[in-house]
Amino acid sequence: MTEASQITERVGPMMRTSRSGRRRNQHLNFGVAIVGIVVMMAIFAPLLTRYSPIDQDFSATLQGPSWTHLLGTDNLGRDLWSRILYGGRIDLFLATVAVAAPLVIGTAVGALSGYFGGWFDVIVMRIADIVVAFPFYVLVISLVFIFGNGVGSIFAAISIVSWVAYARIVRAEALVIRSTDFMDALRVGGIGTVRIVFRHLVPNVVSQAIVYAMSDIVANIGVIVTLSYFGMGIVPPTPDWGSMMADGQPFFVGGYYGLMVIPALAVIVTSFGLSLIGDGLANVLRVKR
Amino acid sequence: MSGSELVAEKISVTFATRRHDPGHRALTDVSLRVGKGEIVGLVGESGSGKSTLGRVIVGLQESYTGSVRFDGETLAHRRTIAQRRAIQMVFQDPYASLDPQMTVWQMLEELLVVHRIGGTREARRERCGELMRLVHMPAGLLDVRPAGMSGGQRQRVAIARALAVDPRLVVADEATSALDVSVQAGIINLFADLRDKIGLSILFISHNLAVVRSLCDRVAVICQGEIVEVAATQAIFDAPQHDYTRQLLAAAPDLP
Q1: SS3 per-residue string spanning B175-194
Q2: B212 within some domain
Q3: Potential cystine with A227: which of A29, A233, A267, B248 (Cβ 3.0-4.6 Å)?
């Protein structure tokens, strides 16, 4: 590589930042604002509503929005606003936890696989191939079917399937980093292999995985909501956006659109916010390189 | 020439790219000596095997035949931590040889901790300050990451890192080639300084003959994996014996 091309390579990304960095950071800010509001609403749910999300009131079923029930009530007289808030709690929590575990496991496995290569890499990558050979939804739904409904089995099913994506992303980056001069410099310096992998390799390869994690939360919300919609996910009466849509569906024809549309909007707005964060984060982290 | 002395004897390295491939011989029976406080230049064109020899000496290339002795001790192919400490390396590209995620202090301190040098955190901090002074860098840059430094500053940090563990020999593999001329001069003076001040031995790998001439005591010329000529610097430049050395000198544009 000539010196000139090295210079353009290094200056390139920085110049890109200065031109459009502000706009890209707006993605991040806007996303953080949306997700921040949604998360706050979920956390402070008990302060934001007077009603329990599961108490039924048969004297007030299928009501429209009013000052007593902000978003109205469903066919069992449950307050819709409460159910949206509390439903967000379980969906967001589960989606986040089901990203954290695969992120950690996949990053560790991918880093070791990429750094060492050899038989460990072959075995890990063949397992990964097997997992990705199945469509994501099909595999997760089958696993939940095997494990049974509930939060624990959704978490397990998503984790088993989605660590693979992180392992592949991190492995590809690790393959590039492991043969750079600074890795050699660490070896010459007598730094141990474990230290090299976890203190030097991982911090240099993890950014792509973190960016992916943001879009993965969106995917997880989709899975959780879908499973619950099909009655395979979160067990009633615990409110969640998917089962709310399923519950509201029969009344859609009768003109009670809100029962289905409002939880759907909650899913869309949250996913939109998370996607914006992922987008903004991708640019911020790319600049740091 | 007593004391810490590097003797590499009959080093051969073969790179087999595929199974059943006889392989490409990168080095053939190469022998080289670097005395205490001596700066030896290793010159040759690209692909001649000079970097491979450097990597064998610092222990990065673990498969070779022959022996590397340092201070009379034969070094294992897979080096022990103490053996690593004695021989350090400075790489060509200062943009690639520092961990971009770490501050200078974090890099240096890690080495001190791993090699159990320095005791308390304050003592390590002080030692790192001294190292920075040794390579003519302001101690304030200890808390800066590589992205915040120029190429020359990064290379000085890379040298400080090599010196952090008190090595007795430093292999500088094209350590000035990626730098512009004025910065090069600073780094070369630094190497000469370090030899004078702390008695460091240096194996200076380069294709830049002008630099080698101004810095080195002796020069080894390597061609297609074999050392064809070793002599005092003056002798190499005034009266080259081998044809290849003459070609190399003739091809250098900036020499009189």
Answers
A1: CCCCCCHHHHHHHHHHHHHH
A2: yes
A3: A233
